[in-house]
Write a structure and sequence with these properties.
It is built from eleven helices and 18 strands. About 35% of the residues lie in helices and about 30% in strands. It has an eight-stranded mixed sheet with strand order 3-6-2-1-9-11-12-10, with helices on both faces. A six-stranded antiparallel sheet has the order 14-15-13-16-18-17. The longest helix has 25 residues. α10 crosses α11. Bound molecules: adenosine-5'-diphosphate, aspartic acid (ASP) and magnesium ion.
């Protein structure tokens, strides 16, 4: 069997933990399997590097950020390969480039365009354990790129797909996918299985246990994906096709995203095409707009409110300020003290009253809902950030996810 094993930041957080990872990887190899390991930077390392850059600039060049941030994963990959060799296991560390990961040039959130797995395959054939630095690739120009925060998950899934691995294991600091973040609600229950679509929604809506693009890729390439703990031997959670799950629950999980900001535009000129102008310019600037609300004011103008990830706020402000300068918008304001709580479940497709229940949970705790959006399998609400954890626990309780 060919197994891809990915170890996240906490799992490689210090030298002893890297040794533990080496022990686990070598045990898999001893069992007769081929292993490709993908590693993250040691926990806190990427944030430390970001802070270093921010010491010099509020908006550092993205290409330089990629050079900088990709260094964290290289450290772990080399150390793990050294530890494995010392234990008598032939191994080789590879950068994203050496592993053949080619991306577009959208620095700090590059997309993988293709993988040339030749170097990895050659090493595997020679019996080596391949250790790949996650989170990074290279564009056509030879510049280093990174795949967005949490992107080592994507490296692992993409490599598993390219090598047609039998299994892709994501080792982290919790024993699988829970009904909600167990750090927020200790009563959260571990799921044995979850569908790609539900996992994709949870991940996109803030459950950082898996990077959303890794789930999308796993679904597309049909990768057998398991999330489990690197600190125990407990069985993890299988992320799989919906048809492999007997009796989907009504609601599978609750997600929380605190990295959202709300932008309010007041006195927007009420003319056809204005929304198209604003949101096209935002799209051109690479801003990821999520929820949008428009209200007509009394004076022939409208107010438009929308949410963006905090990381896009700087770029969004630049676009919006342009409309204010040109007099097409009277005023704009920003609020980072909001969050988005979401309820996810494929069972919603065939049941009524699911959303009403979510609103009741908020009402019971006197939490004001600022924005709402729904899709076939999710309900999201924007609320004030101070109520984030309370809201998650209330939703978890009202859908009886602790039962
Ligand atoms: P890694 O460093 O291994 O990539 P992350 O910190 O990115 O790990 O993701 C693991 C964390 O995700 C957990 O510690 C947990 O707090 C959080 N998390 C959020 N939602 C969930 C969920 N539904 N199930 C499990 N963990 C979750
Ligand atoms: N080190 C990167 C991050 O912190 C990538 C990852 O850990 O997956 O976002
Ligand atoms: Mg992660």
């Amino acid at each position: 069997m060919l197994v891809v094993q990915k170890f996240g930041g906490t799992s490689v957080g210090d030298l002893q933990r890297i040794q533990n990872v080496a022990n686990r990887v070598s045990a898999t190899k001893k069992d007769g399997h081929d292993v490709v390991v993908v590693v993250s930077a040691m926990s806190g390392e990427t944030n430390k590097l970001v802070a270093y850059a921010e010491h010099f600039s509020v908006n550092p060049a993205k290409a330089e950020m990629d050079m900088l941030l990709s260094a964290g994963e290289r450290v772990t990959a080399s150390l793990l390969a050294i530890a494995l060799s010392e234990m008598g296991f032939d191994s080789v560390a590879m950068t994203g480039r050496k592993a053949g990961i080619v991306t577009d040039s959208d620095h700090t959130k590059a997309r993988i365009e293709n993988i040339n797995p030749q170097n990895m395959q050659d090493a595997i054939k020679m019996g080596k354990i391949v250790v790949v630095a996650g989170f990074q690739g290279v564009n056509d120009n030879g510049d280093v790129t990174t795949l967005g925060r949490g992107g080592s998950d994507l490296s692992a899934v993409a490599i598993a797909g390219a090598l047609k691995a039998d299994l892709c294991e994501i080792y982290t600091d919790v024993s699988g996918i829970y009904t909600t973040d167990p750090r927020i609600e200790p009563k959260a229950k571990k799921l044995d299985r979850i569908s790609y679509d539900e996992m994709l929604e949870l991940a996109s809506l803030g459950a950082k246990v898996l990077q959303n693009r890794s789930v999308e890729m796993a679904k597309k390439l049909n990768v057998n994906l398991v999330t489990r703990s690197s600190f125990s031997n407990e069985e993890g959670t299988l992320i799989t096709k919906e048809e492999n799950i007997m009796e989907a629950p009504l609601v599978s999980g609750i997600a929380l995203d605190k990295n959202q900001a709300r932008i309010s535009l007041m006195g927007v000129k009420d003319r056809p095409g204005i929304a198209s102008d604003i949101f096209n310019k935002l799209a051109d600037a690479g801003v990821n707009v999520d929820m949008i609300i428009q209200n007509k004011a009394h004076d022939e103008t409208t107010n438009i409110d929308f949410t963006v990830p905090v990381s896009d706020l700087h770029d969004a402000k630049a676009v919006v300020d342009g409309f204010v300068t040109r007099g097409e918008v009277k005023a704009d304001s920003y609020n980072k003290d909001i969050c988005k709580v979401s309820v996810v479940g494929v069972g919603m497709k065939s049941h009524v009253g699911v959303a009403a229940k979510a609103f009741s949970a908020m009402a019971q705790k006197n939490i004001n809902i600022n924005m709402i959006s729904t899709s076939e399998i999710k309900i999201s609400m924007v609320i004030d950030e101070e109520y984030a954890e309370l809201a998650v626990r209330s939703l978890h309780a009202i859908y009886e996810l602790d039962k």
